[in-house]
Amino acid sequence: MSSAIFGYLLALLLISHITPSTCTNKVIFISFDGFRHDYLEMAAKAGRNISAFDQIRQQGFQAEVQNVMLTLTFPSHYAMATGRNVENHGLVGNKFYDEVLNLTYKYTEPKRNLEGEWFEYGGAEPLWQTNERHGHRTCVFQWVGSEARVHGKMAFATSGVYKDGYSLKWRVDRVLDFLSQPEFNFCMLYYNEPDKSGHRYGPNSKEVLDAIELVNDGMAYLLQRIEQIPSLKGKVNFVVSADHGMTEVDPINRVIDAYSKIKTFSYKGDTSPASIGLWPQKNTTLKELYDAIYGLPNLSVYYKNEIPDRYNFKNNRRIAPVFGIADNGYLVKTSTNVYKDLYGMHGYDNAEPDMHPFLVAFGPDIKKMDGIQKFYQIDLYPYICAMLGLDKPNKIDGRISRTLPFLVNRPSDEFISQFQLYEMGILVPHDYLEVAAGKGRNISAFDQIRKQGFQAEVQNVMLTLTFPSHYAMATGRNVENHGLVGNTFYDEKLKKTYQYTDTRRNIESEWFEYGGSEPLWQTNERHGHRSCVFQWVGSEARVHGKMAFATSGVYNGEYSLRWRIDRVIDFLSRPEFNFCMLYYNEPDSSGHRYGPNSDEVLNAIELVNDGIAYLLQRIEQTPSLRGMVNVVISSDHGMTQVDPVNKVIDVYSKIKDLSYIADTSPGSIGLWPNGSSTIEQLHDAIMNTLHLSVYYKDEIPERYHFKNNRRIAPVFGIADNGYMIKYSSKDYSDLYGMHGYDNAEPDMHPFLVAFGPDIKKMDGIQKFYQIDLYPYICAMLGLDKPNRIDGRISRTLPFLVNRPSDEFISQFQLYEMGILVP
């Protein structure tokens, strides 16, 4: 095997390859609220003017849309934006209760509508963010969710809080102001007709026909304006749809009185005129609420787990434990108020034809098709991604395969294959290099490495902190087995606290020897070679009485990346050295200080790229190294946006009067009873804290591999992604990026790029386990007697040019499982 240089950068997010889009056309996506699938035919039959819609459908196609459940404005619009069914995007109604947040979302409260927590459920990502993550700019005009900071971000241009007074023509002018600028490739626009007229007068009314003509007039104006703008003429794809349909209702004779059945009970209600969700409160039971409304005529009632699977409206904590839906055209009375001036309604079963919205589309990328097609609402996301050339979507329920017949030019097989891996959640999008490339930043060295080798998303260990993660990379062990369980933690046996800021204590060997852990530099030297280690966690300590042959001593952040590279090359160019490890603290430092979405992080990425370019240059200039070095570059964790003022969990106020020792980071807290306080008191003090998951030690999820170690506290709490724990009297300041959250969170996943004579060239984005770095490096260095590890050499074999011999692999596996001991 060739000699290897093992270079690590403390990068924040997976750096994934972006192929600059060749798409030059733009997209306008418009929703006309409540535009039923048959309204155009109804208007034409009545002799109304629908000439603009006729132009669009004659040059493109028309479809009846299978929409999501519930067929309400907010759930449907967010499904259109995210490509997800309602149970997966989390906006489960126009009004609904969240038991964890202990808050009720109300569409009539624009202030609450701005809170990001309502729109971030399950990592949902709206189209405007997907587009901007690929390096473009988006304009969004009054779409559901566009006023909120979703995952800390908004579209580049938005219209602010919803306001009903803007005319459609005025909205069109604003959209075109942005779309005519070269950096904008995508706009979304919402308008509230014919829904408003349909509610007030009924779907079959003259007023709805008037509203259709009004909307047609706005579309004609849009088409005219685009023809008048040279940069847009012939280059815009139009996708015009709606959230739901509308059916006729009778506010007097077709009302289901649920209120009289439940008014004596204590409950919270998720209500719309077509459905009801009930949450028991105080002494009321689930069964009492269910029995109270079960059997009401024209109302189908379910326990949550009985809701039909076809609804895709069940598996979400925000869906009430008792759910009832009215028959089409009936209204549910849920209070003392009576319905009046309400003659059209939606929110019914999405199998009802009256609930289905329309879709018309045309443009340079949209295929002309006769007849009325069928289109799935959740497929709007992948359809628009395909037209914009966005090849790394979020995980979605929509499927790009269903949209291909509606495109003039089928995307490449490579595009489709990669897209499908992302849409199914097999690959997860990360945005550092994508954003850097989209903004013209220099990432040429990273491009060179991944094009000649491969790139991967790394499944890292828990906790997603610097010291536990780096020692997992070095030892091939999960955190509970290597023993460095945090950046700061208490050891009850040693009666000491490890603090990453205490460089004197950091070099005490007892912290690094737990369970017989052995870092890579020792494994390499045990096989008769020499290692160089530059500022890696644990490299300053005598682990089992030994250090690497060459180290840099106690950590010093002042050394430049180029200076570090020169020192590494000095050693690696000597024949006795076959392995080097290098650590650098960017872009982590910039991410913490300014946030992961900042220009400063982009500057740090360019700085790191410059260092890697220098490394590649130095290798080429050194005859003994040219063509002989395997380069592996990765990271310990990712980074997410935090808010040091508005997204802070005050744990300190709950525990300050108790006696304890704390293992602390902004993302997690471990509590040890001290003095008179008990484990139960500490647990109960922080249990039921909003945005904090609290466990007794033996309840910590097995998937964390963060439980079976004496150094893990008996009470452990982990914050929701993006929230920070206040564990002392001090407030946070100048901290806008953080890690240390659940390792299932995509924002926490690091990157990996690698190339060299022993490293296989692979297309696409692979998956790699952080604990497999140890056996991967061992395989390249020919080290056949590893320490006992949690990583598996079998998972690394596809990444090697030449598979080691069966004898090598068999022996290695006996050691990695601890059957043989070195």
From TrEMBL:
It holds the Pfam family Phosphodiest. SUPFAM superfamilies: Alkaline phosphatase-like (SSF53649). The keyword Signal applies. Keywords: Signal. The keyword Signal applies. GO terms for molecular function: hydrolase activity. Residues 1-23 form the signal peptide. InterPro entries: Alkaline_phosphatase_core_sf, Phosphodiest/P_Trfase. This is Extracellular Endonuclease subunit A domain-containing protein. It comes from Mesocestoides corti.
